[in-house]
Structure formats: C-alpha cells, structure tokens
Amino acid sequence: MPEVGSHVFAIGHPGGSGDEILTRTLSDGIISAVGHKRKECRFIQMTVPINPGNSGGPLFDDEGRVVGINTSIVRKSANRDIALEALNFALEIGYVHELLTDDSASVSPQQIAKVLRPATIPSLVSLGGRDFARMLSKLQGEGFRPYGGGSIDTTVRACTLSADSRRLFGLKCERGREYVMVAASDGSQDINLVVVDSK
C-alpha cells in the first residue's frame, strides 16, 4: 500500500483512439491521498496527469510494483463551475485483488461475455415489467405512437452503462407535437436522471 507523498508513475496511451493517440506515454507524480471511497470502491488520489486513454493502465511505484489501476479525473467541482487541477484517481490494487479473488464480488466469464456480446436487444416491456407495460398501453391509448413508427420493441434504443456514465441519443422532434421519453433499467434498481433537451 503506497503512502501519501510516495512517488508513482503511469504508463498509458492518452489521446483516445485513432491517429491522435500517444502510445506508451509515461507521466509521474506523488500520492496525494489513499483510501478514498466511492460506491464501495477504494481509490488513490494522485498528482500523476492522466487523460482518456490512460484508463485501465497501471500505476507503478519506484520499485516497479503496480499499486493501482488508473481510473478517473475530476476537472470541475460538482456544485460550482470551478476548474480543478491534479485530482486524478486510481483504484487501489488491493481492492482490485479482492474483486478478482472474491467470486461473490466479481462477475463470471459468462456474464462478461453477455455484456460484450449481447445476443439480442432487450424488450422494453421485459425491462420494465408488467407495471411498465400497463403504462405504455395507457400512453398508446392516449394517442402516442412509437418514435419513428413500428412497434415498441423495434424502436428500443438499448445500451450498457457503467456507474456515473451517460449515453446521448439524438431525437428529431417536430414543432407542435408532444413526445414522451420512457427509460427502463435491467440490473439496477433505479435510473438517476433522464434529460430531454429541445434545442
């Protein structure tokens, strides 16, 4: 377990994907804090600069030991539009080891395969259950029709999201018409927020 002030460095490929990617880039810094907890995960805070493309890469100490998995950055404060610096985070390697060795805390190879190669797009009704189906039936009774024509199931837009992530879908809306967006979740007890922006 690294200590606050310990020197660490990251190796990764910042820049995302495509021609602009910077391969095998090394950056270094120090450990700012250890033991940060978020959603039951334990994080190391560090000054090592990381960017998209570093995520999932190793964080090393001076002995060459992997002490963390580079994960995320914070660029702005949550409540105010204030720029922040040097708030970079890596999952503690001890926490990662616990996940990999605890069958109850990790997913099986079959579950991973299902996420990476889903057999079919789930039915919107199957995601939401019977109450959901009744709500959709009520909306149809009030004159609403699936977006773009077709049936409820053929107009489903399905995606896999991790915690604190988002996915944007574009809708072409006509002036003077009313639209209802319905969201359902498979495997989670709640959906935090669905926003429709009519720009």
Radius of gyration: 22 Å
Q: Which ranges are low-confidence, i.e. pLDDT below 50, for 5 or more consecutive residues?
A: none
Any idea what the shape is? elongated
**How do the strands of the widest beta sheet line up side by side?**
1-2-3-6-5-4
CATH H-level homologous superfamily name of the largest domain: Trypsin-like serine proteases
Question: CATH topology of the largest domain, what is it called?
Answer: Thrombin, subunit H
Give the strand content: 15-25%
Q: How many angstroms separate the termini?
A: 49 Å
The chain-level mean pLDDT equals 77
Helix/strand-derived category reads: alpha+beta
Total strands: the figure is: 6
Q: What's the helix count?
A: 3
Total tally of structural domains:
2
Order of helices and strands: EEEEEEHHH
Overall helicity: 10-25%
What can be said about this structure in brief?
The protein is of the alpha+beta class. Helices cover 18% and strands 22% of the residues. It has a 6-stranded antiparallel beta barrel with strand order 1-2-3-6-5-4.
Q: Layout of SSEs?
A:
Blueprint: E1 7-12, E2 25-38, E3 41-46, E4 58-61, E5 66-73, E6 88-92, H1 93-101, H2 109-116, H3 124-141
Antiparallel strand pairs: 1-2, 1-4, 2-3, 3-6, 4-5, 5-6
